[in-house]
Specification:
Helices cover 21% and strands 27% of the residues. Strands 7, 8, 9, 10, 11, 14, 15, 16 and 17 form a 9-stranded mixed β-sheet that branches. A 4-stranded antiparallel β-sheet has the order 1-6-3-4. The chain has a two-stranded antiparallel sheet with strand order 2-5. The radius of gyration is 22 Å and the shape is globular. The protein has 3 domains: 77 residues, Structural Genomics Hypothetical 15.5 Kd Protein In mrcA-pckA Intergenic Region, Chain A; 82 residues, 2-Layer Sandwich (Pseudouridine synthase); 159 residues, Pseudouridine synthase (2-Layer Sandwich), CATH 3.30.2350.10.
Length: 343
């Protein structure tokens, strides 16, 4: 959308449409407020219910109550008096760490702290702002306006590898591989404790928490969320924490972080999932000070997207990339190695 004339406006009530969602054929009967909670990031259930009461939410062009049950093929619209934010991305001259590039794609090693694409509270300084500065005419996936080149993402404070599509052919090929779960991705993480067993598979649904929509929760009963599968194995045991490798079969939001918390081994210094306190070890002040010093060295979740492998859309051959652990990650590992050796 480039100007107000492009906006969708309801002539009757002067509202601008922000979201239009069509419930799919297999949609189970679900309250409209819960339905929208799962689909509108950064919006609380209270705000959704207020919006319903104020007539900002309609189903099949009719106002509904918060207890309305969504049916298959229902058309849900969310409209507000203000127009939606422009999806045009402002190019910014931000350096990129490109580890591979050809005419079809590039692979970048994203630093921790960089948001992947513009979104609520992060409209600038993102990877996409950098991409639009360095590359012109990157393709966009349908329904992914304002996110040129992206076929997947990693969290702001997770470091590591991302593949970016430079052509429509590359985007379609990579998107299908992600959809088919055939992309090979491994992460390394420092977690609290020693996983039991030391290697295994976590096959537990994950989805937005019903209590706090900013986080992802595990739903072991399978009554909510989406299928999520993480294969993990121990790499190093530091008595109080462990270095593990995680191989993703699916790629849900915060999947590894939520799964590791679920099995009792949250990621080191992951404030969102309870890893920012000393969960294992002694009560002595010397140990607590050591842990705090480690937190200062790596002021983020200790999670790194280390390898990425896929079928190249141009050659149809499998290619794989590996990346070094960043300095903060390596320094904390060295600290723990030294600590368990001499204490």
């Amino acid at each position: 959308m480039n100007n107000e004339e492009d906006l969708i406006e309801d002539d009757e009530d002067g509202l601008f449409e922000h979201h239009r969602i069509v419930a799919d054929t297999r949609q189970s009967l679900l309250r409209i407020d819960k339905f929208l909670m799962a689909r509108l990031p950064n919006v609380t259930r209270t705000k959704i219910q207020d919006g319903i009461h104020e007539g900002f939410v309609k189903v099949n062009e009719e106002s509904v109550k918060p207890n309305y049950k969504v049916h298959p093929h229902d058309v849900i619209t969310v409209a507000f008096p203000e127009p939606p934010r422009d999806t045009d991305v402002v190019p910014e001259n931000i350096p990129l760490n490109i580890v591979y590039e050809d005419e079809y794609l590039l692979v970048v090693n994203k630093a921790a702290g960089m948001v992947v694409h513009p979104a609520y509270q992060n409209w600038s300084g993102t990877l996409v702002n950098a991409l639009t500065y360095h590359f012109q005419n990157l393709p966009e996936m349908a329904g992914n306006d304002g996110r040129p080149g992206l076929v997947h993402r990693i969290d702001k404070d997770t470091s590591g590898l991302l593949v970016i599509a430079k052509t429509e052919k590359a985007m379609n090929s990579l998107a299908k591989q992600f959809f088919d779960h055939s992309i090979e991705r491994t992460y390394q993480a420092i977690v609290w404790g020693l996983p039991n067993p030391e290697a295994g598979t976590i096959n537990v649904n994950v989805g937005r928490s019903l209590k706090d929509r900013r986080i992802t929760a595990a739903f072991p009963e399978g009554d909510f969320g989406r299928t999520a599968i993480t294969h993990y194995k121990l790499l190093q045991d530091f008595r109080y924490v462990s270095l593990i490798e995680c191989k993703l079969e699916t790629g849900r939001t915060h999947q590894i972080r939520a799964h590791m918390k679920f099995i009792g081994n949250p990621i080191f210094n992951d404030a969102t999932y309870g890893g920012n306190e000393a969960m294992k070890g002694t009560i002595f002040s010397k140990y607590k000070q050591f842990v705090d010093n480690c937190f200062k060295i790596i002021p983020r979740q200790a999670l790194h997207a280390k390898t990425l492998g896929f079928i190249h859309p141009g050659t149809n051959k499998f290619i794989q990339f590996d990346s070094e652990l960043p300095m903060d990650f390596k320094e904390v590992i060295e600290k723990w190695e030294h600590y368990v050796k001499y204490n």
